[in-house]
Amino acid sequence: MENKKRTSAFAPASVGNVGVGFDTLGHALNCAGDTVTIRAGDAGAGVTLGHVTGILQELPADPSSNTALLPLIAIRDERSIDDGIIVDIDKGIPLGSGMGGSAASAVAAVVAADTYWDLELSKDELLAYSLMGEAVASGSPHADNAAPSLYGGLVLCEGTADPIVTSLTAPPTLCCVLVHPAVTIETREGRGLLRKDVPLEVHVRQSQYLAGFVAGCLRNDLDQITRCLRDIVIEPQRSKLIPGFENAQRAALEAGALGCSISGSGPSVFAWCTKKRAETVRGALVEAFEAAGLQCDGWISLIDAPGARVVSND
Predict the structure, then answer these.
(1) Which residues contact 91 (CB under 8 A, 6 or more apart)?
(2) 217: Cβ contacts below 8 Å, ≥ 6 apart
(3) What is the CATH number of domain 6-168+304-313?
(4) pLDDT 10s digits, 210-221
(5) Is domain 174-301 in CATH 3.90.400.10, yes or no?
């Protein structure tokens, strides 16, 4: 197997859960992402961390704590690859932001490795390896960030072990506004505070919201999406970790958003809206969080944003 000198892949940030579909729905973003570069290393060294650049300059060198390194070790071992590699990571997604940063690093690493080692892995195989990395950060291999980062666009994920991914189409008139307030929430923390039981009537209503939301996307029915883009199970538990969330959500809805909720574990907050209302909704969210004393970044993104891809292969 002849190694390339250097292969780089980019994987985008993502909105996990999309509010209404905990561990089920996700969509890619075109506002930020991580780039992983694989280059030749010493054969006896295995997989080692190289340069860390971007918004971070330091990440764990221990593969058991690094979402990009662990899946590469699995690929190398399972495919009986002898050559060593050095892995450079350029972080464009803040840690603990609710923007799928741990998943993006894993996805970018796996996509780069597929080309570097000429493996020609299927999307299902790429996702399975990516989820090994995602589990490092969150403690479980849920696919609602890794799958959209890999596939792009809006996806529905069935199951946790070997998930089945279905690409959905959002109405073309809509976009996503994402605002990241200056708070850090680790994914494990965000999952750890969740109750293990849900009252039957709440479960039924949330199931109706999820079904209605998917139907609204398929039918291009903005009224149905507006009725159903709600989270009455997870959002009430996690919102307490985000100062000013309720006011920000109210401001987004008053500005014309169809729905507004927490991206992944937070603290990032997303809103779906028509493209013509996007600037107004972004301004309302930023202003609300600044009124709560939090500086924040805000973006407007396609919902049908492209997924991971190789950006160089020298």
Answers:
(1) 34, 52, 53, 54, 55, 56, 59, 101, 105
(2) 154, 168, 169, 170, 171, 225
(3) 3.30.230.10
(4) 999 999 999 999
(5) no
